[in-house]
Amino acid sequence: xxxxxxxxxxxxxxxxxxxxxxxxxxxxxxxxxxxxxxxxxxxxxxxxxxxxxxxxxxxxxxxxxxxxxxxxxxxxxxxxxxxxxxxxxxxxxxxxxxxxxxxxxxxxxxxxxxxxxxxxxxxxxxxxxxxxxxxxxxxxxxxxxxxxxxxxxxxxxxxxxxxxxxxxxxxxxxxxxxxxxxxxxxxxxxxxxxxxxxxxxxxxxxxxxxxxxxxxxxxxxxxxxxxxxxxxxxxxxxxxxxxxxxxxxxxxxxxxxxxxxxxxxxxxxxxxxxxxxxxxxxxxxxxxxxxxxxxxxxxxxxxxxxxxxxxxxxxxxxxxxxxxxxxxxxxxxxxxxxxxxxxxxxxxx
Length: 349
What we know:
Strand order of the largest sheet: 2-1-5-4-3
Mean pLDDT: 82
Shape: elongated
Low-confidence stretches: 1-5, 295-300, 344-349
Strand content: 15-25%
Radius of gyration: 35 Å
Largest sheet: 5 strands, antiparallel
């Protein structure tokens, strides 16, 4: 069947009807950029009557605020088919306050002449203001967070100093030991806090994180670094900040435990912190080449540090295992995704 040619007046009337019903502000322009039709939403948004804008040049609307040279050039190029306006940002200066608009223009293709342009307008003034306000609030939040972190760091340093001074004054060796343990833990928390405070928003690179943490622990607890050392062997994994805090606390407790129990007297050795990940499965380990005697392991297994490690591992849905390292001791924390979890994720995907 041969298609009947569309009469120009019929096509124009149809185009006007479509534009008039548009929920978005829209104008139908002829080749001279005179308004052939305007949507009710355009007239409402820009406080104009359809009869007032009909037949008037786009660039003569209002107080002439639409007469922008770049817009003229883009519309001309669109009319000749050499370009199309997609999301053209324009500041409309007329009215009580400037408005930020996003314009889109298309040439209407049909067999009859004359050619027409469909210009749609989106007022994004309020959206841009909201976005700027959100950015300002985020900046304020960052500044406040930095201030809080600074105050926390200062408070931790004060607490650590008080604990150390108290340890020097007490007569009881047992009490002195407890105070030194508390001092070490506070210093480790301070180290965690400093690293996270200097990290950018987002995931934390564990190799750097563990290295800086172990350096801080070594500086506060190892007297002779030629005798004892802490090494980090980790892949390039990164994890969210909240998970990195739990992992850091586990490393802190296990390293402190090794420093206290694995190297009595003047024994030398190395503590190694390891981390490897395979997809969502991961393994964290702290091993030493110390004495690894059953008595020291037994005493450590009932202490506060062991309780903390167990609680943190449970929060991470991981298991804790302790075994001999021949020589020394190895404590591993392993997280393995269950088959049920993987099956659920596969079905969702």
